[in-house]
Amino acid sequence: MAPCALEPESWESQSPSVGARSPYPSEGLLCPGINRTPSFSGQLVGTEDALLQQLADSMLRGDCASELKVHLAQSLPLPSNVTRPRIDLIVFVVNLHSKYSLQNVEESLHHVDATFFLGKVGFLATGAGQESHCSIHRNTVLKLAQAYRSPLLFCDLEVESFRATMAQRLVRMLLVCAGHVPGLSALNLLSLMRSSENPFLEDL
User: Fold this and answer.
1) Secondary structure E strands in the chain
2) Along the chain (204 residues), what's the average pLDDT of each consecutive run of 10 residues?
3) 107 in helix, strand or coil?
4) For the residues of 39-71, what is the DSSP string, one character each?
């Protein structure tokens, strides 16, 4: 495999993982029906270091974060000299106030293995609440998500309550992508998209 290529279950962020939390409840609000401790990990990619760190911290505080690991990276490809564990979901974070943020995501997407686009990639746009400061139109990110047939979520990550809700949703998506929710798989996530701004809100 070329150093820049990314394959499922084989890569890690250039930044250290945020960590894991325990003990894990046998069943929680986010994990109905799960009676074992699952292991799953996600990758957040974006230029907003502080927001990504805060989002990762919120994810680890969730009900189902016992064996959760969240890796952070500003961009892809990742260095070839790092340990590469399994990654169940990649979330590309776009700041609507920064054209560089969008450009960075667009360039990073070229380094993701095609098999990840079978339900294991998502987009998260932040900053839509301050439209007067947006330099990227929401439809631009929507078209990007549609081009890669991947879900798009909107959330103002700077608002703690919104960030906490989004963190729960991402953990739920991670559980599905990792195969820990009976009857659901990563491919099911694609069919659950209801609209450009509200995918998964009712289903997950």
Assistant:
1) 40-45, 68-73, 89-95, 121-126, 152-154
2) 35 44 38 61 97 96 73 90 83 97 98 93 91 87 92 94 95 92 84 50 41
3) helix
4) -EEEEEE-S-HHHHHHHHHHHHTSTT-TTEEEE
137: number of Cβ within 10 Å:
11
pLDDT at 195: 42
pTM: 0.79
For residue 114, give every residue at least 6 positions away whose Cβ sits within 8 Å of its Cβ, in sequence order, or none: none
Token pair listed for 113: 């293995």
**Nearest by Cα to 76 from 163, 15, 126:** 15
Q: Give yes or no for a contact between 100 and 48, defined as CB atoms under 8 angstroms apart.
A: no
Owner of token pair 């906490």: 164
Taking CA 98 as the corner, what is the angle to CA 94 and CA 103, rounded to the nearest 5 degrees? 65
Q: Which amino acid is at 26?
A: S
The helix (H) or strand (E) run that includes residue 186 is: helix 186-191
Cα–Cα distance between 167 and 60 in angstroms, integer?
8
How far apart CA 12 and CA 45 sit, in angstroms, is 11
Token pair for residue 200?
């998964």
Burial class (CB in 10 A: 0-12, 13-18, 19+), 130: exposed
